[in-house]
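During the no-cost extension, the postdoctoral fellow (Dr. R.K.) reprocessed legacy sequence entries with the updated structure-token encoder. One reprocessed record is reproduced below for audit purposes.
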Amino acid sequence: MTPDSLRARLADRAHLARAMPTMSDDGEVAGEALAAMLQSARPAAVLVPLVMHAEGAAVLLTKRTPHLAQHAGQVAFPGGRIDPDDESPEHAALREAEEEVGLAPRAVEIFGRLPEHVTGTGFRITPVIGFVAPPVALAPAPNEVEEAFELPLAIVLDEANHRRQRAIFRGRRRQFWVLPHDRHFIWGATAAILVNLARVLNDAVPMAAGGGRSGT
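Re-encoded structure tokens follow.
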């Protein structure tokens, strides 16, 4: 998918993104369950940076350092809590991206949002899509980010790469999305947001919570 076609698809599918359901780590939720999760969840925002290489776009991701209190060592988008001083989720996402990886806000063209995602750790995440023109100058914060790396968008768009795994977490059986990478384990909220991005770009109908390929 070329940068021009990517822009066109996102523009055409803005209404689809708004219509898709709020997601949780276990899948799509609605009704009373969703209302209960949203009532207590803390607002957060992440930047979904699409680096627009001429040979094909890639998603910029980070691996968090192992000593952090939340999501230590996990693959994540740049982002964090929405502070009272933040004007919008977009402002929070850009601020956090600059703090975490040194990505200047002026280098990002904000293009829209994906559906909110509610995590099992109590956050309501607004994913903000941003285009970034290469070369990308980054300066990861050593106390927060162990590494910044790119995942080719072609891998995200291939639905054969969208796998569901199951595990016991805090005494409860959980299901979560997993996407492949040769060096990193991409799972949970990050993988679920990438699946939603693929649905929008592939012009797909939202899948049920148990959809996708099963893993072990």
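The chain has six helices and 14 strands. The longest strand covers residues 42-51. The remaining legacy entries will be reprocessed before the final report is submitted.
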